[in-house]
Amino acid sequence: LAKTTQPISMDSYEGQEVNITCSHNNIATNDYITWYQQFPSQGPRFIIQGYKTKVTNEVASLFIPADRKSSTLSLPRVSLSDTAVYYCLVGDGRLAFGKGNQVVVIP
Amino acid sequence: SQTIHQWPATLVQPVGSPLSLECTVEGTSNPNLYWYRQAAGRGLQLLFYSVGIGQISSEVPQNLSASRPQDRQFILSSKKLLLSDSGFYLCAWSGRAEAFFGQGTRLTVV
User: Fold this and answer.
1) What are the beta bridge partners of residue B31?
2) Which residues share a beta bridge with B86?
3) Along the 110 residues of chain B, how does pLDDT read in single tens digits?
4) What is the strand order of the sheet A53-56 is part of?
5) Which is it for strands A53-56 and A61-64: parallel, antiparallel or unpaired?
6) Minimal-distance CA residue of chain B relative to A47
7) Contacts of A32 in chain B (CB under 8 A)
8) Which helix (H) or strand (E) holds B99?
9) Could you give the count of Cα atoms lying within 13 Å of B68 in the half-sphere of its Cβ?
C-alpha cells in the first residue's frame, strides 16, 4: 500500500504561486511529512518538513490540515528554474520515494 | 559539516561484468545509508538501506547486493551485470530530519 499519492504532473506559469498536493491517508501518529525537489541527473534536495499546521522557510511553505491525511507544498512566485520533480515522503526510516510530481514552469 | 562522496560519476560496463559502487560519508556517525536507482524518466527506486554496520535491508529482489563494512561506507555490488541494471544510482544518508544525496553514478550496461 503506497504511503503517498501525488499527481503525476502539472504546469504553471512563471511568477505564479504553485501548490503541490500529496495524499497520505495512512499517516501514523509519529510520522513527519517531508518534501524534496529533484532536478535531472541530480539527487533530491530537501525542501521542507512539517508535522502539523503550517511550516515556512525561505523557499516554501507547507500546509498540513488537522487530520494530517494530506499536505500541500506552496512555492511562491515560481521561476523557470523551479521546473523539477517534487516528492513528498511520510514516515519512515526507509525513505521510500514515490513517483513524484513533475512540475513544469512555463514562461 | 557533513559530506557524502559517491564514485564514479559515469560507468560503462559490459553485460556479465561485476560492479562495485562506493559511497562514503564524512562528518557524522551512525548514519542511515541508502542506495537508489532511477531509470530514465522514472521515480527513485529504493534498493537497499542500512541502519548500522552489517545491517542491510533489501527492498526489491534483484541482481544487486549491498554491504556496509564500516560505519560510513556503503557499497553496491553485482557479480554479473544485466542490461536492465542500467540507470542512475544514488547513495544517500539521513540524519534526524533530512536526507543528503551523493552526486550519483550513471551506469550504462552494454
Assistant:
1) none
2) none
3) 779 999 999 999 999 999 999 999 999 889 999 999 998 888 899 999 999 999 999 988 678 999 999 999 999 999 999 999 999 999 999 977 789 999 999 999 99
4) A18-23, A70-75, A61-64, A53-56
5) antiparallel
6) B98
7) 97
8) strand B99-101
9) 22
Q: How far is CA A104 from the centre of its chain?
A: 14
Secondary structure (H, E, C), B55-97: EEEECCCCCCEEEEEECCEEEEEECCCCHHHCEEEEEEEECCC
- Taking the C-alpha atoms of residue B85 and residue B54, their distance in angstroms, rounded to an integer, is 24
If one counts every other C-beta atom within 10 angstroms of the C-beta of residue A49, the result is: 17
Query: Which of A22, A47, A95, A104 to substitute to test the interface with B, most B CBs within 10 Å?
Result: A95
Q: Is the dihedral of CA A92, A98, A103, B2 positive or negative?
A: positive
A99 chain-B contacts, CB cut-off 8 A: 42-43
Outline where DSSP puts E strands in chain A. Answer: 9-13, 18-23, 32-38, 45-50, 53-56, 61-64, 70-75, 84-91, 101-106
> What are the C-alpha distances in Å from A54 to residues A26, A29, A57, B51?
20, 17, 10, 30
Chain A hits for B42, CB-CB cut-off 8 Å, are 99
Per-residue pLDDT tens for A77-96?
999 999 999 999 998 678 88
Nearest by Cα to B93 from B45, B9, B28: B28
Contact A41 B97 (CB under 8 A): no
